Amino acid sequence: MLSIKNLNVGIAEKQILKDFNLEIKPGEIHAIMGPNGTGKSTLASTLAGKEDYEVLSGEVTFNGKNLLEMSADERAREGVFLAFQYPVEIPGVSTTNFMKAAVNAKRKHQGLEPMDAKDFLKLMREKMALVEMNKEFTSRSVNEGFSGGEKKRNEIFQMAMLEPTLCLLDETDSGLDIDALRIVANGVNKLRDDKRSFLVITHYQRLLNYIVPDYVHVMYGGKIVKSGGKELALKLEEQGYDWIKEENSELV
Amino acid sequence: MSLAENISKQFAEVSNSNVVELRKNAFTAFEKLGIPSSRHEEWKYTNIKTKLNEQLSLTPVDSQVNAAVKNYIASLPPYSFRIIFLNGVFHPELSIVPDTKGLTVCSLREAFGSHTTLVEKHFGKLINYNEEHFAALNTAFVNDGVFIHVQKNVTVNEPIYVQYFFTASDINAFTQTRSLAIVEEGASIQIAEDFRNASNINVQYNHVSEVFVGKNASIDIVKLQLEVSNAIGIHTLESQVERDGKFSAATVTFSSPNTGTGSAIIRNNVTARLIGENSHADLNGLYFGKENAHIDNHILVDHVAPNCTSNQLYKGVLSGDSTGVFNGKIFVKPDAQKTNAFQSSKALLLSNDASINSKPQLEIFADDVKCSHGAAVGQLDENALFYLRARGITKEEATQILTYAFAHEVIDHIHSKPIRQFLCDKLKDELKVNF
Ligand SMILES: Nc1ncnc2c1ncn2[C@@H]1O[C@H](COP(=O)(O)OP(=O)(O)O)[C@@H](O)[C@H]1O
Ligand SMILES: [Mg+2]
Predict the structure, then answer these.
(1) Which one of A205, A213, A234, B160 is CB 3.0 to 4.6 Å from A29, fit for a cystine?
(2) Which of A51, A81, A88, A161 to mutate to test the interface with B (most CBs of B within 10 A)?
(3) Hey, which of A17, A18, A42 would you mutate to test ligand 1's pocket, going by the most ligand atoms within 8 Å of its Cβ?
């Protein structure tokens, strides 16, 4: 599904990702953990196609296609979804209108007619229930005046609407209280199936109690320095990142 | 013949001679002022002098109501009140004015005869023909326009829609139209003035509106300049607001691709003078410039009385090599304590060749006031664009959606629901946004 080979990425003249490698198969959940500033968001944003990040070398294939050749919007229509670490406020555009444009962009890409208004509203209702989002949010401007938790729920709601095959969750858990965390995790778990893969970036083990990963990777200095099962996350929770930093002091 | 000689010859021939003294005075003033050149501070960025034809003809020429005109009229939204002018000439057979208690809507020509005292008391009283070139010219030559009078405590719920439609391709015509609206104490009304020219038609016009807002009265006026191409349009809107009155003006300008050789120049002068305590003015504007269009908004809120509030919100979207001018004045006179005045001007430049000259001008002579202004010129927010694209929306559509959101704020401020809906559709159409 996703194959990243020797990926080197820089921003503002500074190299962040260094010979990064990762394979994700359909239906798998991979967690990426690591200290701040290690390049986790850089990885997610590069995969989503943010142009500020410069791919210096390497390959990324997504469902057999060269992902790096596609524009950000093309990637999204092909099934890549980034749940932003910092969702953007869009004053003047309601969530309903935003989703209508996004859903229909994808349908057009698939050669389908725009969705019928009634079906669309039904879909909205269904997916909002998934993340326990109040219907008043649909008429409000996207993310404007939303609390941190509401913004993150909105990301998962959009993910549910667009039914991507690769979901990149960038610190979706940060800033969430325990109830919101449970709601978000529940939403994600309901979207799990054997075709949809997840890359869950998180700073804390906490989220992984709810979204149980198949693999846990530790990122440091722009690459994966350790991989394991879900028990690796528990070890990090107990011992912190110091042992990782010591073992890999040559990387930074 | 020079332009000055040409105009003075035509004045000698003006036959319609209501308010004769005023017209003579205005003409004398115009002879001194002439057409402003770009050396004049208020016309620095809008060089009108070189654009106006020397052989201007100031008397309107009526034209046939042909099938195209009929089709156009039929395409208008079904407003209850519809007043139609073709090439500056009133067409009663195309207009609809339902009898409404306490409301008079008729042509200005008719009002000179039927409401003589009222007209003479108000006509020309708000314009300063000694300083304003085009208001002076208009006063001297005005042929016709609309007269609206709302009696005390009468509320008119439907908008009065006035259409100035140009169909005659007379490159020499410089049409002078005028409206006068008097809204008495406690009354309220909504007015839309819509200026349009048929495609491929070159037009030049100079329109003046005078608006009197009585005590505790309210007027919402929307000026529509919707398919501006091949046009030189000069608009002056002067208003005076008495105690507890509310005046709201929105000027919406859309330029369309130039189909001919003409210029696309729009100049708006909008003034609200708050002469009674606790009165309020909203001056809003939205303009879309394309290709070589030039859109100039000069606005002024004059705080004369204390305890008044005002808001100015102007937004522009400029593409091609279009140019915008924004000059927003706030005057606070010595007696106008506790004034609260706010101004915001924002412009989106969608191409490298588009530009705007933006100038706030605050002159404050009272000490206990709150005045603020902000101006922003720039591109769409990159983060917002990326967010939309990350959801599969193409860059082009994301740009349209964000531009729609930017512009829509101004339309949201329009009180008349049918006009707001009409503009909302127009905006969607313009930006090809389909939600
Ligand atoms: N726009 C940018 N300009 C310059 N440096 C950046 C930019 N974005 C991120 N960086 C740098 O790249 C490094 C990795 O950042 P990031 O990928 O956000 O880390 P993480 O998500 O792991 O905390 C950091 O050192 C950060 O300062
Ligand atoms: Mg990050």
Answers:
(1) A213
(2) A88
(3) A42
SS3 B266: strand
- CA torsion, points A72, A78, A84, A87, in degrees to nearest 10? 70
User: A196-234: per-residue pLDDT in tens?
Assistant: 999 999 988 889 999 999 999 999 999 999 999 988 988
For residues A105, A106, A112, A113, the Cα torsion angle rounded to the nearest 10 degrees is: -30
- Supply the pLDDT for residue B171: 73
Identify the helix (H) or strand (E) that includes residue A178: helix A178-191
Q: What is the pLDDT of residues A28-43, one digit of tens each?
A: 999 999 988 999 999 9
Three-state SS for A209?
A: helix
pLDDT for position B260: 65
Closest CA to A162 of A70, A44, A77: A77
Size of interface A-B (CB pairs under 8 A): 78
Taking residues A168-187, report their average pLDDT.
Answer: 90
Please, what sign has the CA dihedral across residues A232, A238, A243, A248? positive
The number of residues making up chain B comes to 435
Contact A2, A189 (CB under 8 A): no
pLDDT at residue B259 in the model:
66
CA atoms within 13 Å, Cβ hemisphere of B86: 20
Query: Is there a contact between A88 and B408 if contact means CB atoms under 8 Å apart?
Result: no
> Is A140 near chain B, with CB under 8 Å?
no
Of the partner residues B383, B393, B406, the one whose CB lies closest to the CB of residue A101:
B393
> What pLDDT was estimated at residue B15?
52
Asked whether the beta carbons of B181 and B215 are under 8 A apart, the reply is no
Q: For A100, list phi and psi in degrees, rounded to 5.
A: -60, -45
Q: What are the tokens at B63? A: 């034209």
Report pLDDT for B274. 98
Asked if B284 and B410 touch (Cβ cutoff 8 Å), the reply is yes
Per-residue pLDDT reduced to its tens digit, B137-166: 999 998 899 999 999 999 999 999 999 999
Domain borders along chain B are 3-379, 382-435
Q: What is the pLDDT of residue A156?
A: 95
Cα nearest neighbour of A163 on chain B: B391
- For the CA of A42, the nearest ligand: 1
The helix-helix angle for B3-12 and B20-33 (nearest 10°) equals: 170
Q: Which helix (H) or strand (E) holds A46?
A: helix A40-48
CA distance B232 to B264: 6
DSSP state of B269: E
Q: Judge contact between B174 and B88, C-beta under 8 A.
A: no
Mean pLDDT of A164-182: 92
Instruction: Verify whether ligand 1 is closer than 6 Å to residue A36 (CB atom).
Output: yes
* Greatest alpha-carbon span in chain A: 58
DSSP of A135-191 = GGGGTSEETTT--HHHHHHHHHHHHHHH--SEEEEESTTTT--HHHHHHHHHHHHHH
B153, HSE (Cβ side, Cα atoms, 13 Å): 0
Q: A47 touching B, CB under 8 A?
A: no
pLDDT of B202? 82
| Prediction pTM value | 0.90
Q: How far apart are CA B58 and CA B6, in angstroms?
A: 10
A119: CB partners within 8 A, 6+ apart: none
Q: Which of B169, B163, B161 is nearest to B199 (CA)?
A: B169
Query: What dihedral do alpha carbons B197, B198, B204, B206 form, nearest 10°?
Result: -20
Alpha carbon B165 to chain centroid, angstroms: 15
Which regions in chain B score pLDDT beneath 70?
1, 13-17, 259-262
